[in-house]
């Protein structure tokens, strides 16, 4: 065997244990997090778990192309998500794809017709007068207590923005009479329950909505507490039986009721408690709202507020209903803002609001004010959705596709392993160990991404994982071949491992960058399931870099110190003789030329 020469890098000291310890700690931490979260398997998509997938495309009306924007799309997603959840389906997901598409995925084979009916219709927004309300658990839920000029925590105020409506009361917070009930008063919450100042009662609300004492009307003996006399018996029965703590009951509350009918509904108060309502016929339609915006009011110190501008027709309707409600006792002086059958806000009024606009103010955050403004605006948006596709996959078909995908992945992995064993022999075990580490990290991260960002493993994603096997193996091959090239030049293994790494590293990074760039572009420009392929390809490409740098290279450095590899065993895959290593160049002194004496 030809003698091997030692290069200048033979003395290079490396500390591979640090890198191996780092990736081991990361794997243990991620695995622990996976089991701690209770999600030890990746979440499966519709095509693997079975279910219904609906793709909707936003279509603006002529001249209203600007209506398709991220804010309105996010509002539509929120509305559709509430509708889908109303079906009682677990693990449903509604998300935007691109700038004008919404994907609704409902697993477990939910009825596609019902799902299409729920998510494909335009949102319905109404302003309805409140007839009665109480906590779903049975406790009375009086209208919020009146407060003074400056809204404080748990209180709100509102006024008309043109000054047409003055403050309901000039009392200070100390002078205002609180409600006798212990039920929390309504305040601005994440769902936008606002109590306007101009929409405040000018008298102290009664302890219970069941006491319409100011009108002298006595409650019906047969009705539920809080239901005024004269209420339809059928409506009273629905109200008494309504349990808003149950999702399926909330979803069906008020089904079939027209805008001109009285109905029952559910809504959450500021404490997250569900309340039930009897609501009168719709007084103002959502299309009567011209615009609603979240505004930071720095002039009065009211903080974040929601302003509403009505159309000419809506202005008159709103003035009429607020004028009538202002003469009623609580809770009949409240009106409910109802979106898709759910009460999202229930302010009360003390005087007619004229002028065509109003401002709802209170203990809002930017997020809660924007959410309420979006809900108020959406009923009037010139935005509809076209159903692009509906795909229903049975659980059995999804299981068959998953089984076929796993078989394809196993065959691909087996072929790669067989090639490595035949060509690289002992060196192949380093590659196989690296593949196992990469596969483990991919599995754990996919399992964690399910509950974290809603990632679902679909069939294209499985294809991306299979393709990633070849990409990952290619990185190992690049490095191994660089090491072999150094051995062919006559260097010992430890030196070859260190000298080959810089060149292999550049090649691996460039190759993986190209793959990641392709995956990123594919993810951005595509819609639907193809994004699953792009996401998985990009994820595994990043993990390839991590594994090569923190596992493959350090492990090969350690193995180069073992006699089996360092001695060039014929089964190591690094036998210098089998690789055709060159003999070292021998330096010889050139004979000196005879010195000729020149005569002068």
Describe the structure.
This protein has helices at 16-37, 46-49, 70-86, 112-119, 233-241, 247-252, 312-325, 366-378, 395-424, 428-453, 459-488, 493-525, 530-559, 563-566, 576-579, and strands at 51-60, 93-97, 101-107, 125-135, 156-159, 263-268, 274-279, 284-285, 289-297, 303-310, 335-339, 342-345, 357-364, 383-393. With 600 residues, it is α+β, with helices and mostly antiparallel strands. The strands form three sheets. The chain has a five-stranded mixed beta barrel with strand order 4-7-6-12-11. Strands 2-3-1-14 form a four-stranded antiparallel sheet. The protein has a four-stranded antiparallel sheet with strand order 5-13-10-9. Helix 9 packs parallel to helix 11 (459-488) and helix 11 runs antiparallel to helix 12 (493-525). The longest helix has 33 residues, at 493-525. The chain is elongated, with a radius of gyration of 36 Å.
Structure described in brief:
42% of the residues lie in helices and 16% in strands. It is α+β, with helices and mostly antiparallel strands.
